[in-house]
Amino acid sequence: MQYSISKKNNLLEGRIVLPASKSISNRVQIINALSYNFEPIKNLSDCDDSKAMQSILNSNTNSFDVGHAGTTMRFLTAYLSKIVGEWTLTGSHRMKERPIGVLVDALNSIGAQITYLEKEGYPPLKIFGSNLTGEVVELKGNTSSQYITALLLIAPSLEKGLRIKLSGKIVSRSYIEMTLNIMEEFGIKSEFKGQEIFVPNQAYQRIPYIVEGDWSGASYWFAFMALADEGKLYLDGLRRHSFQGDSGLVPVFEKLGVKAQFSKRGMFIEKMAANCTKLKFDFNQMPDLAQTFAVCACLKNIPFHFTGLETLKIKETDRIYALITELGKLGYILTEPAEGELAWNGERKTEEENIVIETYHDHRMAMAFAPIALARPNVVIDSTDVVKKSYPNFWEQLKELGFEVKE
Fold first, then answer.
1. Second label for 147, Cα 20 to 30 Å away, from 11, 153, 183, 383?
2. In order of start, what are the domains of the chain with their CATH numbers?
3. Among residues 48, 246, 288, 362, which one is catalytic?
4. Is 109 annotated as a binding residue?
């Protein structure tokens, strides 16, 4: 499905009820399964990833298809490795292209029995679940935080606990800290000092849990506000002291012209003057927002140099390539100065006619490019249903704010 998006004016006013955090929802679902806690999680995300996790955890079969759900694939690989039984875990064509060898090697080193059914190092997997002893695993610090989180979530249930030794630069530390903070809410004690994380053997407490709003989802409304002529939006569901690393977007968007103010249940965002001539930022702690900022900065004609993007090539798509290609259609010449970097120095070329933005099966591509509607009306976005992965009612909320969203 394709959507053409436009708005009669560039005024934004209204209230947005943000989706629940997918990252928190999936972590808590694994914790509840490990603690045999059958109390429903309040405000659980209704996105495809979380639905896939919920369906599989409540399934009576031993063969599971996660579709495009990356966190579900990683978290379940670790979880099933310690649940006695024989399991098959697969996913979409793109999922079979996303590496998982680092996690499998780490799990096998502590007693797991996981083999590959097709290509070495990639799903689908055959998992022979058993009682894992744990103890020590060693990983590179620049590995995906989802691998580390998958190990941490099962760590308390391992006979000897788990010590994770990280070498080199640690990327996405905020996601690791979010995992440990959520685990602490369920009574788990841990240590994260220097390059090592230690989680001793202990039991998760069974507690009621309410999932907070999604800061990644909030980022798209910040981008809309940055590109609007004027306006004020209320973003319902954000927590001031959030575990989510993406909450660090507030001071960065202030440079791009968005003022934010917290209330009890959320946040007001308002248009203000931008105070930035070039945006330099290290996205190490919030890589999922790189697309949002790249599109927004280009449309505001603000050159940028982003670093800390080492994990972007193994996401739902190669996001570096996707940004260079799709922003190129709009006339922006982006470059990749080095591995994990993306830049635009202000260089332009003639934009294409009848532009169709490809989403590459990536929900964040669709939502990051949606604010184009305020600068280039009627640009078409392809495969718009990909937003179901994290923000199912995104297009409906756009309509509620007065946007025309046409097939």
1. 383
2. 3-20+213-406 (3.65.10.10), 22-199 (3.65.10.10)
3. 288
4. no
